Amino acid sequence: MNIEKKYLKEKFGKNLIIKENLSKYNWFNLGGPADIFFRPENKDQLKDFLQNIKNLNLKINIIGAGSNTLIRDSGIKGVVIKLGSKFSQIKLISNNVLEVGAATLDKKVSDFAKENNISNMEFLSCIPGSIGGAIIMNSGCYGSEISQILISIKILDQFGNEKELKRDEIEFFYRGCNIPKEYLILSAKLKGTLSSKKLVAKKQEELIERKKMSQPSRIKTGGSTFKNHKHKKAWELIKESGCDKFSIGDAKISEKHSNFFINNGNAKTSDVEQLINKVKKEVYNKTGINLELEIKIIGNEK
Ligand SMILES: Cc1cc2nc3c(=O)[nH]c(=O)nc-3n(C[C@H](O)[C@H](O)[C@H](O)COP(=O)(O)OP(=O)(O)OC[C@H]3O[C@@H](n4cnc5c(N)ncnc54)[C@H](O)[C@@H]3O)c2cc1C
Q1: Domains of the chain
Q2: How far apart are CA 130 and CA 109, in angstroms?
Q3: Cα 111 from Cα 122, distance rounded (Å)
Q4: How many CA atoms lie within 13 A of 131 on its CB side?
Q5: DSSP state of 65
Q6: Is 88 an annotated catalytic residue?
């Protein structure tokens, strides 16, 4: 262990792990170790950490629930941050506005909104990520996206400076936004519309049921691998190009949804990545359409 890592380990104790295996922090269950894995207790500790590493020239990655992320087998050089439980709190700040920690799971936010008679957050119960991940991805389904209910976010930049960004200062688009990569989202204010618990519960159940019918559950996946093309859904392009039966090693494509790629048990990230590239190439050859990745692939190439 070099001197900097030793110093950081001594300073941050149990919250910092050297060479932590990342496969348990993502839905694919894949990926090698992070050089430095940091799970801050609270905002002050995160600021302190950022101050301490600012001259070390380390690349910083942050992961949420890891439901949209594929991590390479050789792991991640630099730092991986995963926000701890203090970043997973929900506060009702007026009758239809919530302040939500970035690590809070979307489903929890949807349930909290329901308990408080707030509608328009039902779709969050269908997305298995955290609020931080949902904002970066502008996640959504069935006609709703998180940008439609967002008021503002609080962030820390890479030096530990705190800022608030209003919705209007951020550009959102289909499965993405222009929030700088260095920004770590701490929390968000979300605004719904007042309704009744009964109506919200009904809408939430309908969406969950719809989701169950169309997408596989209890599998190791990152959800939709590619973004939909403006004229056609990615799953249709994959199926029509004859790629839905492709596999490499234990990396497969879901029979229920051909845009869901799966670690069928013993896949490596390299298998999944090769399968992604093979499908992308074949779809391009057959249709002339260049599929764009929705999932994020991170980590060292070798
Ligand atoms: C079964 C399944 C179904 C899915 N269905 C849908 C769906 O219907 N609609 C949809 O949009 N998506 C869907 N997804 C994809 C995924 O759940 C969403 O993209 C989700 O919002 C990602 O959140 P996460 O916390 O898991 O993000 P991660 O995968 O951990 O990270 C995604 C990105 O967000 C960044 N990030 C995470 N937290 C922070 C933070 N605090 N600050 C700054 N950056 C951060 C990461 O660095 C990364 O770039 C599905 C995935 C699965 C596995």
Answers
A1: 3-85 (3.30.43.10), 88-213 (3.30.465.10), 216-298 (3.90.78.10)
A2: 9
A3: 8
A4: 28
A5: S
A6: no
**DSSP-derived secondary structure letter, 50:** H
Residue 29 vs residues 24, 218, 276: alpha-carbon distances, Å = 6, 12, 17
The full length of the chain comes to: 302
Closest by Cα among 62, 61, 63, 104 to 85: 104
- Mean pLDDT in residue range 70-83: 97
Tokens of 63: 């992961």
Paired with 146 in beta bridges are: none
Residues 78 and 59 sit within 8 Å (Cβ to Cβ): yes
What are the distances in angstroms from CA 26 to CA 32, 67, 109, 174?
Answer: 11, 6, 20, 23
Indicate which residue of 20, 122, 273, 294 is catalytic: 294
How do residues 132-189 score in pLDDT, each as one tens digit? 999 999 999 999 999 999 999 999 999 999 999 999 999 999 999 999 999 999 999 9
Residue of the CA atom closest to atom 32 of ligand 1: 133
* DSSP code, position 80: E
214 is catalytic: no
This prediction has a pTM of 0.97
Alpha carbon distance 179, 170 (integer Å):
7
